[in-house]
């Protein structure tokens, strides 16, 4: 039996397991089972929280298809709250998180003993085509007549601008775009609607998952694409289906800062 905690950040829900003792032996097999919304617990994936020899805590994230992702922004905030309350007993408000996309610095915002939000330093975006990766000479490509700006936040993203996220072809085009030959490691696909210089809306088709209510790395990539295309300022509120994230692309060091919620949903046990 595996004890788990379900958490969500802006509606992006994952199953979290304290794996410091190695209770999960094969996450690639467990993730599809436990993530299934009909026969399992139901989630956007599985996150293992464990010890790190490089940082204060480590996370590994697995998609519902069993594939391992490098990074998840919303999950990183949830891991931060989990560790803040259960590992550090609210005694440490800043710490480092090891991910597949490198070490991320976390700052917890609190109201007394109560968690308010977390800010994750997501690092600098990667814009070089070979490192995103995207099989093109620049980080801008065209699919079905639509221009996409490709960005990596430790995982690959392709952002396009639409008149309305309500009518964006997330489900009709997202699956094909994800696996297009432009993307050697597939890609997360973001559809962005501009509201004004400090406010935008976004829907996402996530690699290995499908549409989710939010994507933290996708939100960061979307702001970078907005700035690169002269669409918004360097700090915006980005409205996702599951909530709003505040994203800032700092000019002084090129780091993208993501601030948002992280909430406990319920606890349980799952028989493998």
TrEMBL record:
Gene Ontology CC: one annotated term: cytosol
Compartments where located: Cytoplasm
Enzyme Commission number, as recorded: 5.1.1.7
Matching Gene3D superfamilies: Diaminopimelate Epimerase, Chain A, domain 1
Listed InterPro entries: DAP_epimerase_AS (IPR018510), DAP_epimerase_DapF (IPR001653)
UniProt entry keywords in alphabetical sequence: Amino-acid biosynthesis, Cytoplasm, Isomerase, Lysine biosynthesis
Example GO biological process: lysine biosynthetic process via diaminopimelate
Biological pathway: Amino-acid biosynthesis; L-lysine biosynthesis via DAP pathway; DL-2,6-diaminopimelate from LL-2,6-diaminopimelate: step 1/1
Record: active site: 72, 72 (proton donor), 215 (proton acceptor)
GO molecular function: diaminopimelate epimerase activity
NCBIfam families: DapF (TIGR00652)
Job description of the protein: Catalyzes the stereoinversion of LL-2,6-diaminopimelate (L,L-DAP) to meso-diaminopimelate (meso-DAP), a precursor of L-lysine and an essential component of the bacterial peptidoglycan.
Known partners and oligomeric status: Homodimer.
Name assigned to this protein: Diaminopimelate epimerase
Species: Hallerella succinigenes
This protein's encoding gene: dapF
